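Quick question, first post here. What does this chain look like in 3D?
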Amino acid sequence: MSRPDLNLLVTLDVLIAEGSVAKAARRLKLSPSAMSRALARLREVTGDPLLVRAGRGLVPTPRAIELGTDVGRLVKEAEAVLRPAERLDLKRLTRSFTLRNSDGFVENFGPSLLARVAEEAPGVQLRFVPKPDKDSAPMREGSVDLETGVIGGSTGPEVRAQALFRDRFVGVVRSGHPLCDGKITAARFAAGRHILISRRGLDRGPIDDALELAGLTRTIATVVGGFAEALALARGSDLKTIQAKPSACTGPAFLARSEGSGLLPGSARQNRNGRTRAEPDSHPASLR
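> Answer (accepted):
Ran it through. Tokens below.
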């Protein structure tokens, strides 16, 4: 009995991940015709079509889905076995890393991160891409090398995570807002009209859950997808919003973003500029 071509495992892993012969060919740096021939060989070996046409695209068969998990694991284990044992020399490393980050990461951490990379690994390029959701699929598929943000329920067990810091929410209103005068209470915060930040377009968030526990609700006037949009709207109106302030962010970059008055139900206090601020329970931000 002839031994199987183990290179087909890599081909099958990429075909299942991409769901496209053309995309898989680009990822493996092969011609589309070569990838089509490889798919034909896989179909012959497995006795299954693996990918079938649905509309204008291809979808995996039940057998392909069944094979997907095992094939991905085998490919990663093979890569680990063949990885060089010598210590990595960062000075000589030439590679591009893709980082998937939430709104605010680049302006707060980008300069110091790039400076350290330039010093320790000058041949490394960092590519920052936006993070529209908490889905860990890009990590599993290998299109993203590193991701930062709050870990969601969809995070797969194969994704390694490490805690970096804890986010603290800071309320923001424009300078001179009526809320800046007098004692800040949960009821005063909840009153009026609010800006909700939701990348998925939801109509409530963790702040609403916290207010509900206190028997309060707030009126959402508008929903936006990011902190920068919310700040722009709050700066030019009487609307209130919430900004995430990582505990690690204490420099001018963050202070410039959060200029204005901030408050939340909780331990409100006056800062040196006379602005009221309160910080609620924090949320862990992680690197994975």
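The domain at 7-82 is CATH 1.10.10.10 (Arc Repressor Mutant, subunit A).
The longest strand covers residues 162-172.
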